[in-house]
Every structure is written in structure tokens, then in C-alpha cells.
Specification:
By secondary structure, this protein is of the alpha/beta class. 35% of the residues lie in helices and 19% in strands. Strands 4, 5, 6, 7, 8, 9, 10, 11 and 12 form a 9-stranded mixed β-sheet that branches. A 4-stranded antiparallel β-sheet has the order 3-2-1-13. The radius of gyration is 21 Å and the shape is globular.
């Protein structure tokens, strides 16, 4: 930990911007058409190997009905809860005593989770604000020390030193041994409302149907959403795979239940129906989060189970391991440190088991073009996950309504990542992330702060 840097967060500014999707995105029982995007700017005073003050930035969608699927709360309620979590974290982080970036996270994590729980927020909602602000702090740290996110991790500038269930883990050596990727395969999401077997493109020139997506991007990896009815899901799955057989040929796929399988009997019926189909890589969060720890998952599954929405606390994956979960997702909206800790757990448990039993995936919460998708891709690259769900570029509209000057600035410094229309560039199913290795946390262009709105307006942007 000798290379870690102490800092003080002097101010936290949080703003929002509306995002309107070009296509409706159906996941679970919810259909998303618009929502606010959160933008965070922190000003830090850095000691140690840095000097003076540095700003850091981050961005993330405030997606309703993922962090909290409870029927008694509306999408407006969900966004209000996320905004409250952001305010709680911003108040906690400002003007602290000097601390490493990880100490800042560890000092406030349990308290912020507790404050959120006391206010009736879910575990995922309670820690959302901290997850995004932590990324802005990391960005400021990287920019102050003129290091990339990957070099900062290699030298443990974050100051990660201990996790209770990994006593004696050599964090500096482990972080130094990580080999960040330069190319990531994009895994395309097939939503529950998506057209399949037409060749349809929108007026924006971007694909709409699955067959058109395959023509445009040449994906080889896919994620298929489930609705919770085994019969209907299997029928839909067969239709999707028929298109992929014809349009793609050789491919791999995952399934995402988004908590829709409320009974183990229904889940067993689904797995029974999968036996005569190509085997998915894994089945993501089929059961509700509240059933994920006390109820054992079906034994000898046709594919391993991957935890996503149930991963609301730092100890969720170890607790879920006891009931049959062997995989866990990385999402930047759940926190950089949680992803790194879960990756270390996988390495530790696999070494104990002497086989690759535990694993991580990379999933996308409709990350939009700009800081959101860039910081998530950088995290995926550091974790060494070779393929990542990427759906923000398909359901969203590039940089959307961001000012032309902002879009041009991002295009200029990330020419390999965005095309001439400021949309994510995917070539032969692969994303080139070379430009994310510059100083900062995947940040070489900055959002136009004047083109954002106060956080208090977040619920108006649905």
C-alpha cells in the first residue's frame, strides 16, 4: 500500500440530464423509454504523490424498476430514492479528513447502507450514490497523479488493504498481476419486445431487429431476456436461437431472468426445457433477490447461476455461495470496489477448489455513450472479462441530446470508441478501448456542465 494517495473531497456537485431511448427496453415486468442520467463532479485536494486540487467526473443512468422492483413504488418513487442516495453520499463525502480512495469508501459504506435502509430504500438503491461518487473520486485521483485507471490499480493508488472474508490477501501483488484487456467483445441484449426475424433499420440508420443487429455489428455473444413463464420463455428462446442460427452461425448466449421466476418449480421447468437447446453460458438472477439466500437453488443446474440484483451488499456473493450461486455480475452502478473484491473472491475460491468453479460476468444497465460506458468498459477490462453485455448503444441514441460540441470532443479523443455519429463503434462484434488507457478514469473529454439540470429535477425526466 506504499503507493496509495491520501485525498480530501472538498465538494461534490451532482446534476442530471434527460435520456430518451430510441427503442423501448423491456426487462422483467418493466419497459423503459426514458430516464435521467446522473452526472457527478468532485473537487479533491490530493497529498502524497499528487499535488494541489483535481476534479473528477462520473455518470450513470438512474434506471427505475431495476434497483427496486417492489410493486408499491412507482418509477418516480424509484428515481427519487436514487436521488436521495446520491444526496446522502455527497453529504457524507464532502470535507472529510484525508483518506485513501478505498478508506473513503470503507468509512461510509455501512453507514450509507443503513441510512438508506432506515428510509425504506433497497440495498442496491442505498449504495447507488456512493458507487458513482467513488468513480468520480478515482477519476480525480488518477488525474491528479497523471495515471490511467489501469496504472492506478496496478500501483494500488486506491489503497485497498483488507476485506474481512479475505484475511491475508495480498492486494498490492494481486492488483499488480491483473492484465487489462485492450479489446472487449460486445454481448448484445435481446429484450422481451425486440423484433427478431425482419431486416429493419431505423430512420437513424441504426438496426432495430435482431437480424439487422447481426448484420450491422457481427456479434458472436448474446444475452436473452426471460419473462418468468417457462412455456412462453422457451417459445421465445427458440425463436431467438432460430434467427441466430441463420444470421450468425456460431455464437454463445446467456439468459437473464431479472428476478421473474418466483418459484423454484418454474425454474426447474425452464431448465428441463433447455435440455434440447444449446446450453447457455449461465442463467442470470432468475429468482427474486429475497429468495436468493434462504432458499437453495436447484442442484446440478444445466448452466451455472449468476447473481445480479441480489448482489446488494458487500457480503452478498459469499452468502449466495452457500445456496448455489457460483457467478456474480460486475456493474459499475454497483461499485468499482465491489467488483474488484468479488473478482478476488473468485480467484481465492477457485484456488481452494483447484478448478474454475466461480466466475464473474460483465453486465450493462443501459450505459450511455460518454463517461458511463467508458468507465464501465475500463472496469471490465481491468477484471479481464472478455465479453460484456452492451445495450446502451442499441436502445439509446449515442450521446442523445448532449450538445454538439460535447459530442465532438468525445469523438475526437476516443476515435476508436465512437463512430462519426458519436455512436459506440463495434467492429466484428468487438470494442476497441485503447483510448481509455490515458490519464484519468477513462476520462479524456468532459461533459458540458451547463447542459445539465439540478438533481431535484430528476423525477421530471422520466
Amino acid at each position: 500500500m506504499a503507493d496509495s494517495v491520501k485525498l480530501i473531497v472538498r465538494s461534490v456537485d451532482v446534476r442530471v440530464r434527460p435520456v430518451h431511448l430510441r427503442l423501448p427496453f423491456r426487462f422483467g415486468a418493466n419497459t423503459l423509454t426514458a430516464c435521467p442520467q446522473l452526472f457527478v463532479r468532485v473537487e479533491t485536494e490530493v497529498a502524497g504523490s499528487g499535488s494541489g486540487r483535481a476534479e473528477g467526473f462520473a455518470a450513470e443512468l438512474m434506471v427505475p424498476k431495476w434497483f427496486d422492483k417492489r410493486v408499491q413504488f412507482t418509477p418516480h418513487d424509484n428515481v427519487a430514492h436514487l436521488a436521495r442516495a446520491v444526496t446522502n453520499a455527497a453529504d457524507a463525502y464532502a470535507n472529510n479528513v484525508p483518506a485513501t480512495a478505498f478508506e473513503l469508501f470503507a468509512r461510509h459504506h455501512e453507514a450509507l447502507a443503513r441510512v438508506g435502509a432506515d428510509a425504506g430504500l433497497t440495498e442496491l438503491s442505498s449504495t447507488f450514490g456512493q458507487a458513482v461518487i467513488d468513480r468520480a473520486v478515482i477519476d480525480a485521483l488518477c488525474r491528479a497523479t497523471n495515471q490511467s485507471f489501469f496504472d492506478a490499480a496496478k500501483h494500488n493508488l486506491f489503497g485497498i488493504d483488507r476485506v474481512d472474508d479475505l484475511p491475508g490477501w495480498d492486494w498490492p501483488a494481486w492488483l499488480a498481476a491483473l492484465q487489462p484487456l485492450r479489446r472487449i467483445e460486445a454481448r448484445h441484449t435481446v429484450g422481451l419486445l425486440d423484433e427478431l426475424d425482419s431486416m429493419r433499420f431505423g430512420v437513424d440508420g441504426l438496426p432495430i431487429s435482431l437480424r439487422a443487429v447481426a448484420r450491422r455489428y457481427a456479434h458472436r455473444s448474446f444475452k436473452i431476456k426471460l419473462g418468468g413463464d417457462p412455456g412462453a420463455d422457451l417459445t421465445r428462446l427458440r425463436a431467438v436461437l432460430t434467427v441466430l442460427d441463420a444470421a450468425v452461425g456460431e455464437y454463445r448466449y446467456t439468459l437473464d431472468g431479472n428476478e421473474q421466476y418466483a418459484s423454484m418449480d418454474a425454474l426447474i421447468e425452464l431448465m428441463r426445457g433447455l435440455t434440447d437447446l444449446p446450453t447457455p453460458l449461465y442463467i442470470e438472477q432468475p429468482v427474486p433477490r429475497e429468495l436468493s439466500f434462504g432458499t437453495p437453488l436447484p442442484a446440478d443446474p444445466i448452466a451455472p447461476f449468476l447473481m445480479d440484483e441480489a448482489d446488494g451488499t458487500l457480503d452478498a456473493f459469499p452468502r449466495g455461495r452457500a445456496t448455489g450461486w457460483t457467478g456474480v455480475s460486475s456493474k459499475a452502478c454497483k461499485g468499482v470496489y465491489k467488483s474488484l473484491i468479488n473478482r478476488a473472491r473468485c480467484d481465492h475460491w477457485n484456488a481452494e477448489a483447484k478448478r474454475p468453479m466461480y466466475f464473474m460476468s460483465a453486465e450493462d444497465l443501459t450505459c450511455q455513450a460518454g463517461l458511463a460506458v467508458q468507465q464501465d468498459l475500463a472496469l471490465v477490462a481491468l477484471l479481464g472479462i472478455t465479453h460484456s453485455e452492451r445495450n446502451g448503444h442499441h436502445f439509446g441514441r449515442g450521446f442523445g441530446d448532449a450538445p454538439a460540441e460535447e459530442q465532438a470532443a468525445f469523438r475526437r479523443v476516443h476515435a476508436g470508441l465512437y463512430d462519426d455519429h458519436a455512436c459506440l463503434r463495434i467492429v466484428h462484434g468487438t470494442i476497441n478501448i485503447d483510448s481509455l488507457f490515458a490519464a484519468g478514469y477513462a476520462h479524456s473529454a468532459t461533459p458540458d456542465w451547463q447542459a445539465t439540470q439540478p438533481l431535484a429535477r430528476a423525477t421530471e425526466l422520466l
